[in-house]
Amino acid sequence: MENKRTDCEAINIDIVEKVRPKMPEMNLLYELSDFFKVMGDSTRIQLLWALEESEMCVGDLAVLLNMTKSAVSHQLKVLRVAKLVRAEKKGKNVYYSLNDHHVKLILEKALEHVCE
Amino acid sequence: MENKRTDCEAINIDIVEKVRPKMPEMNLLYELSDFFKVMGDSTRIQLLWALEESEMCVGDLAVLLNMTKSAVSHQLKVLRVAKLVRAEKKGKNVYYSLNDHHVKLILEKALEHVCE
DNA sequence: TTGACAATTGAACAGTTGTTCAATTATAAT
DNA sequence: ATTATAATTGAACAACTGTTCAATTGTCAA
Fold first, then answer.
1. Residue A59 in contact with residue A50, Cβ under 8 Å?
2. Does this model's pTM top 0.90?
3. How far from the centroid of its chain's Cα atoms is residue B13's Cα?
4. Residue nearest to nucleotide C29 (CA to C1')
5. Cβ A32–B20 below 8 Å, yes or no?
6. Residues A4-15: tens digit of each pLDDT
7. Cβ contact, residue pair B60, A20, below 8 Å
8. How many other β-carbons are positioned within 10 Å of the β-carbon of residue B61?
9. B33 vs A8, A23, A45: nearest CB
10. Which of residues 61-80 of A touch strand C (CB under 7 A)?
11. What is the pLDDT of residues A3-42, one digit of tens each?
């Protein structure tokens, strides 16, 4: 289970024990940090930002971001696995679109944060 | 400036050119992704979560998270550099507290996202 | 069927990240 | 002054990440 360990005693054991029950479960914690990890890449933010404006296929996104199709496709896969975008095949092309309304809100809040 | 490059032509050049002016500046993009990178670690989320409940010193946080003081201190430094927490020396101890009201909101939104 | 194009894939690479360990700084108590 | 405790620091290490490159899949048009 827990393989880390402290190397000290608590200074204010009362505070620690008051806070402990408020801490989130490890499971939730990993889901949260995994979500932020996905957001923590400038290429993926660009992709989400672009798809907020319009659905687009891989080639268009590659031109827009000035990257190779391969690099874009790899990152779209990350976003797809994280369920932030979805893919739809139309003829020869695969069109990507946003799959989650929370993302826009979170991006806006983060924007407020970095802009202040 | 730009050292990446496409390996293809746009399929829908009209869409690409319609979206292009809406794209954020590289500068802003990096600030955004840097912020999410900081949030994208379960240890740092635990620290922020704990400090939302009460300010605490390094030793208490180490006990609470069951980690070494060193590991906690390293991560607190990351949060300090990102201006998400601030440190105040009180006698023998250094007390850390939240330094940004946006963080709580963003954590809540992210929580809504991963919980649905 | 053949050829061209769109997209995906996996391996490889360099660059980055988080924890550990040992050493160090700084404060408080004796 | 000396000792003990709190916290920070830097180097080292393994684990992870993002892009490139080359090869592959699947679809359309001729």
1. no
2. yes
3. 35
4. B92
5. no
6. 689 999 999 999
7. no
8. 25
9. A45
10. 69-70, 73-74, 76-77
11. 468 999 999 999 999 999 999 999 999 999 999 999 999 9
